[in-house]
Amino acid sequence: MTDSFAERMLARARELHGDGFDWTLAYGIAGFEERVRLWPAAWGDDLRVLLYGDFQAPDSILTFPSLGITVHPEKQENTFIKGAITVLEATFKVKEKSVAAVIDAARRINLLLGTYTLHDWGNAGSGWWSYFTHLSGGGLMEKLTHEGIEQSTTAVLNLPTVVRRKVEAALYWVRAPRTLLMESYRPDILQVYSSYWNAFECLVEAVNILRPRRTPSRLEKQVLVDEFVGKRGGHLTAEDVQECYQSIVNPGFVGKASHALNVCFGSTGDRYTEECFRLSPQEDRLYDIRNAINHGDIDAENPKELVRVDARLSRLWMIVWRMFGRFIPFPTPADPQEAS
Prior knowledge:
Elements: H1 5-18, H2 23-37, E1 46-53, E2 62-64, E3 69-71, E4 86-93, H3 99-119, E5 126-129, H4 149-157, H5 161-175, H6 189-210, H7 218-231, H8 238-248, H9 252-265, H10 268-278, H11 286-294, H12 303-324
Antiparallel strand pairs: 1-4, 1-5, 2-3, 3-4
Helix pairs in contact: 1-2, 2-12, 5-6, 6-9, 6-11, 6-12, 9-10
């Protein structure tokens, strides 16, 4: 009996998880690989994607030899892509039907749309969609009314004004970037991640306003220095000395965040601080992903990279939602890792 899509994907995810991948990341990679494995026979040696945007369809076939892309002029009607004036099909010749070939095609289509945007001076929105590469955007459709909304809003209104403004700002950042369900073809992972980090910073500030970090005494400073030296194995570089000084005298945002997480979650706060700022490898730290997005160091054209960011977003989501629960009564999620 042939295994189903779900069974093969789950088996591959377990294999990747056994190799040390985070489960969410393993599951995302397995899904991507399995979709590519099921390359539609009707496509032959072509990869097909949909281009959409506020542009007019061309009068004839467009070819871009440098990119190996052909854009067909016929408007695609009755697709699930809503809101765009025009939807067209584009085809790519690929050397092989593989994950690497799809990632290379994604790079090429992004370059095409990017250069089109330059010639258009950024005046028209455009995008593309592929069954292989695009993670599901959008959210769930539920009734607007939830039991307890009045209690939640009252709790926010009763906060001190300066704290309330920070919490309201955090609420904006978790609401605004999410793509609407009818626009779920538009990827939103990077903007959602950046916005969730903004919400995290707002909540960190709110906690520090309510429970300011106390300046350590001379004895406490010495204890902190001893702990720092112990963690470094007794050997300190000049950077270590500076970091130690900053963590005690001027902790900056890392110190504020660590304090806020410990106030909110007790001993679990140390684990969250680790995930944000000290995790190895460094590229998987929640803070470093945010910086990589903001500074253009995330390979936004690589579907596997978006799967990695999405996996780390699940951890940032957990931290932010549980921090909200310290200010606002609502069905706060439980962290499955807290019980482990």
